[in-house]
């Protein structure tokens, strides 16, 4: 299936990835090749087969609702690119 | 005295008898790393002072007659996908350069509780995506058998440091073969446990339903010792299995009952299977036959679909897991001028540029594949379809294991390949996982062990796979093979 440059640009924005024109030019045919490769799955009739989401097929695992230790604010902020005493600091959400 | 860094069992004997101190073993390991790593490049971080301090503490407690853990004084390396509080955890990515985790992964905490001496973090393909350890942001790891060749990936550093004799043990992680393939390329033994046997808490997620931490070592006995230390249920990981952990080192000197080994003929006739790898598998079959095993041909009818299934599911999960790297809470953030933000606005522009700058080509490629497979209109076509095929693949294994105890076959289609040989051709790189991804999709345990050398003196791996939770059987069979052969004792020249 042909994948257009515009489609790839849109995917990149959805994936929150800024790609250069060179990168777009490289990745577009690679995506096409990989999609053609995985299209092999369409050979199989899977009607009525329950999807296997996980290797361990357990239902919810419950834990007691008890207070426990968690990260301190200082620990949580320690790796932040920018923060003040209390919060992560980010660029304006609304331009 | 020569300090045997190639064997945890020997080291533990010398440490217990007092012939060797933990400091001496640790210093020997650090000296060996200093000698080999300029060429091999297996480590992203060596924790010299902390390792020696840990060793001294172990020696003191031994002198005081206090109880010690099962790995007391044994140097070990940890793949840089596992969180550690005293060393950076980078996933070999610019995104997490210098990142310090506020907590230890459960397996790391268990190593510390077992009194292993963690000497450093090992290099890997960025976010564990790759089969050659060439996609690390911090330089390539070379194969200790020949520096022009890759060590495999993504646990290339974890395999190379054991092959180079730096440490007897290391921890890797395996999403599609990332323990077994580098173990095969570097001539060591590596085990991907049953999904859920080992906690994934603190293992930085690539594809959560496939990732599993496992031991890498020179032989099956050492793998069993390390698995004992890290296996077991963990309340911090809801996918860890609430099952008893047997003593994996027990009974390694024998195989209980008649061993039925399955051979998938289709795999041995696969296009692209190197003749020397095929010969090594044939030879391994004879070793087991001579040891009294019954060899049975079995079918895995959907094995041609393993790699396509994997390359829908793994990137889909990766695109979701890696969305946490947004430059807001931790990791790399690129400054974006307000005038440069355009329609996206300053925050989204910051996300896009931070991720665009800090992720490497393979990570971007997989995020894009996953985004495509999960996007509106394609979710059912690709992602749900792949999950349905995944069930067929698991059913194939369940059927095969009705008739056999283990499956035997190749780990990789070829011996170690050259640096740069496949890096520009993602599909060729993905086919390195041809024989390994089935175990991850099905969640079963699988082991790679040395099974021969090529005419160019390069290692060839043999794979054994078992039903869920049958690691003990895998290790018994591998130990039996290693009693009958000496491939695991071969070292790089």
Write up this protein:
The complex is a heterodimer of chains A (95) and B (493). Chain A is mainly α. Chain A has three helices and no strands. Chain A has helices at residues 5-14, 21-38, 73-77. The longest helix of chain A has 18 residues, at 21-38. Chain A starts with a helix and ends in an 18-residue tail after the last helix. The relative contact order of chain A is 0.08. Chain B is α/β, with parallel strands linked by helices and 493 residues long. Chain B is built from 16 helices and eleven strands. Chain B has helices at residues 8-17, 22-40, 48-63, 106-113, 156-163, 180-186, 220-230, 265-268, 275-290, 306-321, 345-358, 361-374, 379-403, 426-430, 437-442, 471-484; strands at residues 43-46, 75-79, 117-122, 169-174, 189-192, 212-217, 260-264, 294-298, 406-410, 446-453, 459-465. An eleven-stranded mixed beta sheet of chain B has the order 1-3-2-4-6-5-10-11-9-7-8, sandwiched between helices. In chain B, a hairpin with a 5-residue loop joins strand 10 (446-453) and strand 11 (459-465). At the A-B interface, helix 1 and helix 2 of A face helix 10, helix 11, helix 12, helix 13 and helix 14 of B.
Give the topology, please.
The complex is a heterodimer of chains A (95) and B (493).
Chain A: H1 5-14, H2 21-38, H3 73-77
Chain B: H1 8-17, H2 22-40, E1 43-46, H3 48-63, E2 75-79, H4 106-113, E3 117-122, H5 156-163, E4 169-174, H6 180-186, E5 189-192, E6 212-217, H7 220-230, E7 260-264, H8 265-268, H9 275-290, E8 294-298, H10 306-321, H11 345-358, H12 361-374, H13 379-403, E9 406-410, H14 426-430, H15 437-442, E10 446-453, E11 459-465, H16 471-484
Parallel strand pairs in B: 2-3, 2-4, 7-8, 7-9
Antiparallel strand pairs in B: 1-3, 4-6, 5-6, 5-10, 9-11, 10-11
């Amino acid at each position: 299936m042909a994948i257009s440059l515009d489609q790839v640009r849109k995917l990149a924005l959805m994936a929150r990835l800024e790609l250069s024109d060179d990168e777009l030019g490289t990745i577009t045919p690679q995506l096409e090749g990989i999609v053609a490769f995985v299209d092999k799955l369409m050979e199989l009739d899977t009607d009525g087969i329950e999807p296997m989401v996980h290797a361990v097929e357990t239902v919810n695992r419950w834990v007691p609702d008890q207070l426990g230790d968690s990260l301190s604010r200082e620990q949580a902020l320690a790796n932040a690119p920018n923060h003040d005493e209390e919060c992560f600091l980010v660029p304006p959400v609304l331009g | 005295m020569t300090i045997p860094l190639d064997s945890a069992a020997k080291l533990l004997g010398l440490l217990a008898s007092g012939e060797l101190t933990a400091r001496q073993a640790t210093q020997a390991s650090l000296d060996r790393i200093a000698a080999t790593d300029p060429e091999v490049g297996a480590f992203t971080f060596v924790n010299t002072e902390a390792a020696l301090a840990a060793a001294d503490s172990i020696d003191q407690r031994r002198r005081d007659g206090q109880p010690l853990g099962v790995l007391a004084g044994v140097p070990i390396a940890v793949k840089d996908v596992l969180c550690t509080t005293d060393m950076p955890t980078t996933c070999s990515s610019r995104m997490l350069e210098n990142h310090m985790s506020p907590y230890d992964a459960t397996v790391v905490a268990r190593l510390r509780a077992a009194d292993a001496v963690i000497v450093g973090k090992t290099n890997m393909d960025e976010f564990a995506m790759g089969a050659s350890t060439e996609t690390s942001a911090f330089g390539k790891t070379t194969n200790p058998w020949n520096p022009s060749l890759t060590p495999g990936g993504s646990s290339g550093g974890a395999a190379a440091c054991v092959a180079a004799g730096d440490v007897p043990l290391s921890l890797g992680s395996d999403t599609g073969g990332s323990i077994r393939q580098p173990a095969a390329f570097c001539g060591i033994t590596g085990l991907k446990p049953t999904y859920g046997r080992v906690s994934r808490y603190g293992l930085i997620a690539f594809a959560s339903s496939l990732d599993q931490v496992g031991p890498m070592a020179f032989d099956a006995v050492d793998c069993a010792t390390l698995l004992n230390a890290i296996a077991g249920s963990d309340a911090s990981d809801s996918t860890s299995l609430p099952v008893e952990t047997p003593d994996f080192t027990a009974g390694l000197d024998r195989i209980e009952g008649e061993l039925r080994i399955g051979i998938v003929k289709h795999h041995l006739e696969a296009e692209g299977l190197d003749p020397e790898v095929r010969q090594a598998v044939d030879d391994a079959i004879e070793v087991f036959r001579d040891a009294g095993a019954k060899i049975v041909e079995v079918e895995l009818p959907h094995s041609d679909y393993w790699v396509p299934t994997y390359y829908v599911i793994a990137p889909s999960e990766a695109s979701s897991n890696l969305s946490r790297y947004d430059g807001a809470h931790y990791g790399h953030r690129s400054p974006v001028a307000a005038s440069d933000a355009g329609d996206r606005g300053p925050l989204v522009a910051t996300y896009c540029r931070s991720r665009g700058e800090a992720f490497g080509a393979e990570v971007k490629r997989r995020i894009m594949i996953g985004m495509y497979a999960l996007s509106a209109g394609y979710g059912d076509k690709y992602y749900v379809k792949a999950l349905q095929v995944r069930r067929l693949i698991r059913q194939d294994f369940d059927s095969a294991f009705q008739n056999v105890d283990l499956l035997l076959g190749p780990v990789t289609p070829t011996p170690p390949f050259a640096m740069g040989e496949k890096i520009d051709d993602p599909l060729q790189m993905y086919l390195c996982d041809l024989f390994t991804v089935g175990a991850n999709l099905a969640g079963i345990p699988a082991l790679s062990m040395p099974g021969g050398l090529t005419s160019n003196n390069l290692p060839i791996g043999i794979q054994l796979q078992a039903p869920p939770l049958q690691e003990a059987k895998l290790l018994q069979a591998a130990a039996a093979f290693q009693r009958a052969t000496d491939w695991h004792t071969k070292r790089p020249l």
